[in-house]
Amino acid sequence: MDAPVRVRFAPSPTGYLHVGGLRTALYNYLFARKHGGTFVLRIEDTDQSRYVEGAEESLLRSLRWAGLQYDEGPDVGGKYGPYRQSERLALYQEAAEELLRAGHAYRCYRTPEELEQLREEHQKSKNPNRLDVRLPREESERRAASGMPSVVRLLVPDGETIAFEDLVRGPVAISSDIVDDQILLKSDGFPTYHLANVVDDHAMQISHVIRGEEWLPSVPKHLLLYRYLGFEPPRLAHLPLLLNSDRSKLSKRQGDVAVEDYRDKSFYPEALLNFVAFLGWNPGDDREIFSRDELVEAWSLERVNKSGAIFNLDKLAWFNQQYVRMRPDAELAEELRPHLAARNWDHFDTAYLAQVAQLMKERVTFVYEIPELAPYFFTEPTEYDADAVKKRWKPESGERLKVLSGAYSSLAEWHADELESTLQKTAETLAVGAGQLIHPTRLAVSGVGVGPSLYHLLEVLGRERCLVRIERAIESLG
C-alpha cells in the first residue's frame, strides 16, 4: 500500500457499544495491525439531541475490556486531534462556507411544515428521483433578508453516475438523480454526520474507511464532498449486515445487546472477539479458535463476505466454552473466588479450586456454573436428589457402601487409580456389578446422580470428606 494505513472507528455517544459496533472496531483494529498502520478512535458527537451522558465512557470501557487498544483517541491524544467532533466545529463551518462560495452547496430556508408536505407529495407521486426542496432564488433571498433560520445543503448534480470500487462489494455505481440534497450544516451551526465525516477523514489522513453496509447509500454524497473540497477519498469497505437466524436484520429486541452486557454475563472478551470475527469473515479453512495475534495474521478484507452474517448466540456460548477449557486451572481457580464468596464459600485454597476447575471445565460454559452445578465441592450435601435415590439407591446399597467405605479407609494412597481398583475388587467380593457401587457412592458424596468421573471426584474431595459423607448417606437413606 502506498500511503500509511490509517483507519478509524467513529461511534456516536448515543448509547452503549453493541456487537455490530464491536465488529466494526475489531475489523479496523485487525486491518491496522496487519498492515503496520494506525487505529484511530473518533467520537462523533455532533448530534446533540441524541447525546447520552456517560455513553462515551461506556464506549471506551467496552473497547478496553475487549482489548482493542487504539493508537489515537480522545483519552490518549495524537497529532490529529481533537478527537471529539464537538471540539472541531470551526473546521466544518469553514468547509461549509467553502462549498457555498464555490456553488456546491446552498442555504435552504424551507420550514419543517413545507418539507413534510413536499415529502408527502413526493411519496404519492412515486417519483424515484430525489425530492426537490430547492426554492426559487428570489424567494430564498426574501427569506434570508427576513432573518429566517437556514441549513446548508449539498447541491447534488443531475444526470451523473457516481461510481467507486468497494473493497468488499466490488464495483458500485449510483445515479446522482436519486441522491438527496443532504443537509451539511444545521441551523445551530453543528454539522451532520456527512460533512463532519468527510472533513475529519481527510484531516486525520484516514486511508481506509471500514464500516457497516448501512452507510453504502451515503457514499455518493461523501464522494461529491471529497471532490468539491478537493480531497482524495479513502478506500471504502462496507461490511455485511448482522442477521438473526431467520435472516431478519438483527435488532436490540432479538439479541443485539451491549458489549457490557456480555461482560456482565461472564463471557470472556477473547471468546466474544473470536465469535465477532466470524460475523462476515472466514479464514478459508476449518479453524475456529484464534487468539488476537492469530486473527491479525489470518484476517483480510478479501475474505469478508458480501452476504449478511447470522448472529447465533449458541455459537457464542460454544466459543466461551472452548475458552473455559483452554484456561489454565489456576486462573479458573481465581475466577471462581468471587462466585464462591457470594455464597460464603471462600475458605478454599487455590490448589483445591484448581483441581475442581480441572474436573469441571469440560462440563460448563461459564465459570460461575461450577458452584451451581457442583455445590458438593464446597459444601456438604443436605439432601439427595429424589430421582437419583429412586433409581440408584437399593435396599442393599447401605450395606454394600459400608464394605466399600471400610476398604477405602484402609488405602495407603488416595488416588483415582487406587480408588477405582478398590471399588472393582469390592464389587467382585460382593458379587455385584461395579455400577451397584458406583452410583450409590456418587449419590452419597455429591447428593446427585450425575457429575464428573467418580474416581477423580473422590480424589479431589479427599478421604476424610468422602468417608464422612458415605457414612451420613447410609444413615439418611438406610
From TrEMBL:
Principal place of residence: cytoplasm
PROSITE patterns: AA_TRNA_LIGASE_I (PS00178)
Keywords assigned by UniProt, alphabetized: Aminoacyl-tRNA synthetase, ATP-binding, Cytoplasm, Ligase, Nucleotide-binding, Protein biosynthesis
GO cellular component term of the entry, any: cytoplasm
InterPro entries: aa-tRNA-synth_I_cd-bd (IPR045462), aa-tRNA-synth_I_codon-bd_sub2 (IPR020751), aa-tRNA-synth_I_CS (IPR001412), aa_tRNA-synth_I_cd-bd_sf (IPR008925), Glu-tRNA-ligase_bac/mito (IPR004527), Glu-tRNA-synth_I_codon-bd_sub1 (IPR020752), Glu/Gln-tRNA-synth (IPR000924), Glu/Gln-tRNA-synth_Ib_cat-dom (IPR020058)
Annotated EC: 6.1.1.17
Keyword Protein biosynthesis annotated: yes
A molecular function GO annotation: glutamate-tRNA ligase activity
Disordered as annotated region, ranges: 117-142
Domain Glutamyl/glutaminyl-tRNA synthetase class Ib catalytic span(s) in chain numbering: 5-318
Top EC class for this record: ligase
Function description: Catalyzes the attachment of glutamate to tRNA(Glu) in a two-step reaction: glutamate is first activated by ATP to form Glu-AMP and then transferred to the acceptor end of tRNA(Glu).
Subunit record text: Monomer.
Family of this protein: Belongs to the class-I aminoacyl-tRNA synthetase family. Glutamate--tRNA ligase type 1 subfamily.
Protein name: Glutamate--tRNA ligase
The organism of origin for this protein: Eiseniibacteriota bacterium
Gene field: gltX
